TrEMBL record:
GO terms for cellular component: membrane. Keywords: Glycoprotein, Heparan sulfate, Proteoglycan, Signal. Residues 1-125, 139-266 form the Laminin G domain. It comes from the Eukaryota. SUPFAM superfamilies: Concanavalin A-like lectins/glucanases. InterPro entries: ConA-like_dom_sf (IPR013320), Laminin_G (IPR001791), Neurexin-related_CASP (IPR050372). Pfam families: Laminin_G_2. This is Neurexin-2-like. It is a single-pass type I membrane protein. CDD domains: LamG. It is found in: Presynaptic cell membrane. PROSITE patterns: LAM_G_DOMAIN. The keyword Membrane does not apply.
């Protein structure tokens, strides 16, 4: 079978990127299951939804959660299947954000809808997305000079964190993001001579991690950056497809207080 890929605002079933996956089904009231964490990592993730009667199963990669529908009804009536944006909003109090990313292999009750839509084998398919893999940049911000910056809400990184962003620049040195807090606590991601440096201090003194890119990144091409810290104090820095890790001893919490600042790498 030819596996099609769509580039669009889209949700669920082999998705990339996203924060976590939620399944909502109407019974007596909407039932919601959540599965997966830190899915906005620019990698492919597999999503599977199974319902038998009132029993629900939501699987994201290798993690499965289960639930039960309330009420007396066990049948679901479908009209249209929508991916990426929800136009039918009568039964949902909070409408989810539109999806930006890639989706592939969408199959519903054994029917490969993306393949049928691409090949013209389905009676109705409305599409404003595009077939094929394309590099996606969502809402880019341009820093036009060294005085430009962007101030955001404080990074929530007390016990753990997961950051993903993309950048491109022709400048070899510049601040990508910075957030400080109580005492000496801070986090910095910067470009130094064309390479990404990640510096953090949880109270034990500053530590430096250098991305192991095989070339300088100030090449005016988009690059993906993932910075994370888990509950075991393992720090991960991933630049495009290359990853480095480091374990931090001592203090385990990052007490950030002020705004997250981005900028100065144009």
């Amino acid at each position: 079978m030819v596996r099609s890929s769509v580039t669009t605002p889209l949700p669920d079933k082999n998705v990339y990127p996203a924060g976590n996956r939620a399944l909502r089904l109407p019974g007596k009231g909407p039932e919601t299951l959540f599965a997966g964490q830190k899915l906005n990592d620019n990698e492919w993730h597999s999503v599977k939804v199974v319902r038998r009667g009132k029993s629900l199963q939501l699987s994201v990669d290798n993690v499965t959660v289960e639930g039960q529908m309330t009420g007396a009804h066990t049948q679901l009536e479908f009209h249209n299947i929508e991916t990426g944006i929800m136009t039918e909003r009568r039964f949902i109090s909070v409408v989810p954000s539109n999806f930006i990313g890639h989706l592939q292999g969408l199959s519903f009750n054994g029917v490969p809808y993306l393949d049928q839509c691409k090949n013209g084998d389905i009676s109705y398919c409305e599409l404003n997305a595009r077939f094929g893999m394309r590099h996606i940049i969502a809402d880019p911000v341009t820093f036009r000079n060294k005085a430009s910056y962007l101030a955001l809400a404080t990074l929530q990184a007390y016990a753990s964190m997961h950051l993903f962003f993309q950048f491109k620049t022709t400048t070899s040195d510049g601040l990508l993001l910075f957030n400080s807090g109580d005492g000496s606590d801070f986090i910095v991601v910067e470009l130094v001579k064309g390479y990404v440096h990640y510096v953090f201090d949880l109270g034990n003194g500053p530590s430096l991690m250098k991305g192991n890119s095989d070339k300088q990144l100030n090449d005016n091409q988009w690059h993906n950056v993932v910075v994370s810290r888990d509950a075991n104090n393992v720090h991960t820095l991933k630049i495009d497809s290359r990853t480095v890790t480091q374990h931090s001893n001592g203090a385990r919490n990052l007490d950030l207080k002020v705004q997250l600042i981005e900028g100065s790498a144009n």
